[in-house]
Design the sequence.
């Protein structure tokens, strides 16, 4: 029997399939797009195909993410805070502070070291510092979002962006390009701005991260530049799992398995 | 507006005749107050939250704090146009929604012109400014009650003198006198309502609680509008009887109550599904709102001004944050609270400013807090999904605490 976790986020829909022992059989990430149900079906089908099993062999499904209530046939819908905590604990045992930056929100989660959430904080009413923000900046810089990861390399000017409002920051980036500022300087400035904002969120749940095991999940964790800037802002080493964007779906699959096999 | 409130009072009365519940009794009295405010025939005073409404009631003045109207507009789904009107007039969209709503309503001619206005320096200076703005808009006389932050003898005397002057001021501008018999009667009624309200809150503290969130929503902040009258006594006694009956029958407000929650500051006034979700999906019961409390002593019927001053000074949001924190801690212990929800009403510097201190104070009692960011009056900035995730995750955290059955 198998256990499925589905994380329907604003930018991507992720699925993770576990076997009876809790081992990861397959993981999939597809763009959410405008049609949630199609994204859910596609992500699910991909993991089924990878594992070469049929849907009937799935014992239980748990959904998470902002669209968690749209996943049909689920055993339960559990928030992404709990699921990311479970997933991080499985991949990086002993995590005490987890930073999850997704498509439209960011979260700082304080864990007890055993996967239990002690406290969490989410971004206020603003998408600054999230995946959407980075998408807008990549657009302004006319680069692919995947390229942003390494574009900060070699920056030395310590450029500061004056605004983290997505709209104003995009205008500022355009102005900086027009002024001839090097792209790596702009990207490094953006990364520092995001890191500063996320560090403030982290401090709400862990005023001092010294000595704590810090990890990062969510799609933005693929961006090495942001991780480096955040590590510098927090003065802490940040661990990132190999597939950070599927941590929530993994946590959901683990919850599904725990519910069936308590 | 007059027609709306006439219809509301009539329909609520009809429902009350069919279902004699305390909540409907309370709603009916609120509707009748709105009727009086918009009747065009009653003497009228728009006030700050802490005004001594029992005195104004004794003088025959229909009176109300301005934020009440903001809440009514939000609850009826009509606040948006008034909020926009205030914004068009230059008031910032991230200033307090209660005040923006009434300023917009006044600008659109949808707020009746009062005979007098009475501002109270507590709970917030924004409220004083809003009342002053309205007094200028209406061209009506304004009296400002400066409520001291401490309960020293001199502060109490200082405020008691102001209240006496306020009575003379209102009398001079309305022609309504406050005679001794009416004053004595009003204070008797205030004390009777106080006694009944204490019983209500004692019953609400039982485990499981007989309270559903919708029962007592706005009770603590709105009951003072009816103090000094038989209506306040009837409302409080109706709640006492309802809760007693539920407890006698073994009925809890939220069936299978699993979590007892404290709602800080004020409730979200526009329609939303989050409270129902907490109750039905998680058996999480908001057993108390922050102002659901009797924090004052009985008023001396023969010399009420000292007692009224003490009551105003003791208001939980008055004075230092420490005063408020002590009150919150008292509620947490009395109601055996598992977790607290702080809406952090957008635009309320008074409320959000104390957010960190509240977190710390409740952490000392091992009670988690979830901070929302919501304008309790403005549904245009309401992101249901975002708040739902915060609240559901909060319940998951509460459920995973040692000694709890896991919700995950």
Sequence:
């Amino acid at each position: 029997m198998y256990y499925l976790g589905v994380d329907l986020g604003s930018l991507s829909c992720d699925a993770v399939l576990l076997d009876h022992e809790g081992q990861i059989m397959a993981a999939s990430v597809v763009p959410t797009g405008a049609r949630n149900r199609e994204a859910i079906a596609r992500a699910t089908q991909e993991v089924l195909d990878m594992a070469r099993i049929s849907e009937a062999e799935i014992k239980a499904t748990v959904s998470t993410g902002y669209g968690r209530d749209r996943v049909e046939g689920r055993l339960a819908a559990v928030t992404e805070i709990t699921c990311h905590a479970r997933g991080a604990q499985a991949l990086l045992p002993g995590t005490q502070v987890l930073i999850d930056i997704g498509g439209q929100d960011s979260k700082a989660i304080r864990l007890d070291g055993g996967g239990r959430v002690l406290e969490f904080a989410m971004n206020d009413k603003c998408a600054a510092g999230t995946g959407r923000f980075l998408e807008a900046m990549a657009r302004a810089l006319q680069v692919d979002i995947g390229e942003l990861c390494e574009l900060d390399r070699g920056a030395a000017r310590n450029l500061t962006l004056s605004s983290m409002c997505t709209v104003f920051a995009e205008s500022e980036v355009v102005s900086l390009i027009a002024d001839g500022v090097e792209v790596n300087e702009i990207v490094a400035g953006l990364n520092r701005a995001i890191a500063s904002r996320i560090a403030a969120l982290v401090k709400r749940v862990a005023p001092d991260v010294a000595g704590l095991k810090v990890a990062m999940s969510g799609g933005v964790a693929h961006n090495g530049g942001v991780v480096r800037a955040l590590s510098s802002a927090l003065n802490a080493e940040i661990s990132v799992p190999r597939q950070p964007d599927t941590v929530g779906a993994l946590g959901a699959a683990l919850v599904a398995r725990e519910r069936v096999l308590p | 507006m007059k027609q709306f409130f006439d219809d509301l009072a009539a329909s609520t009365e009809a429902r009350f005749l069919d279902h004699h519940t305390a909540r409907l009794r309370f709603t009916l009295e609120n509707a009748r107050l709105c009727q009086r405010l918009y009747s065009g025939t009653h003497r009228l005073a728009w006030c700050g939250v802490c005004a001594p409404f029992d005195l104004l009631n004794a003088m025959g003045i229909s009176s109300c704090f301005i934020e009440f109207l903001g809440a009514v507009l939000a609850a009826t789904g009509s606040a948006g146009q008034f909020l926009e009107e205030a914004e068009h007039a230059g008031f910032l969209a991230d200033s307090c929604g209660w005040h923006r709503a009434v300023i917009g309503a006044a600008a659109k001619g949808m707020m009746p012109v009062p005979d007098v206005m009475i501002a109270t320096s507590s709970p917030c200076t924004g409220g004083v400014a809003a009342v002053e703005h309205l007094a200028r808009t209406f061209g009506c006389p304004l009296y400002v009650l400066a409520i001291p932050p401490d309960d020293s003898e001199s502060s109490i005397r200082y405020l008691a003198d102001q209240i006496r002057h306020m009575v003379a001021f209102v009398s001079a501008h309305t022609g309504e006198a406050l005679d001794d018999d009416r004053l004595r009667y009003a204070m008797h009624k205030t004390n009777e309502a106080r006694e009944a309200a204490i019983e209500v809150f004692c019953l609400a503290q039982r485990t499981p609680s007989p309270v559903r969130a919708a029962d007592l929503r706005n009770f603590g902040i709105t009951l003072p509008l009816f103090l000094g009258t038989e209506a306040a006594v009837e409302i409080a006694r109706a709640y006492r009887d309802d809760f007693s009956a539920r407890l006698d029958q073994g009925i809890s407000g939220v069936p299978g109550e699993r979590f007892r929650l404290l709602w800080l500051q004020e409730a979200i006034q526009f329609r939303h599904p989050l409270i129902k979700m907490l109750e039905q999906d998680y058996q999480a019961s908001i057993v108390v709102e922050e102002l659901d409390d009797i924090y004052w002593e009985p008023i001396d019927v023969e010399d009420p001004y000292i007692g009224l001053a003490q009551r105003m000074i003791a208001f939980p949001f008055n004075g230092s944050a420490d005063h408020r924190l002590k009150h919150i801690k008292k509620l947490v212990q009395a109601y055996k609270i598992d977790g607290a929800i702080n809406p952090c009403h957008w635009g309320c510097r008074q409320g959000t400013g104390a957010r960190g201190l509240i977190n710390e104070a409740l952490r000392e009692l091992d009670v988690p807090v979830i901070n929302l960011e919501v304008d309790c009056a403005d549904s245009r900035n309401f992101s249901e999904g975002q708040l739902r995730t915060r609240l559901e995750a909060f319940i998951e955290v509460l459920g995973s605490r040692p000694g709890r059955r896991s919700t995950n």
Remarks:
- The radius of gyration of chain A is 19 Å.
- Chain A has a mean pLDDT of 91.
- The longest helix of chain A spans residues 183-205.
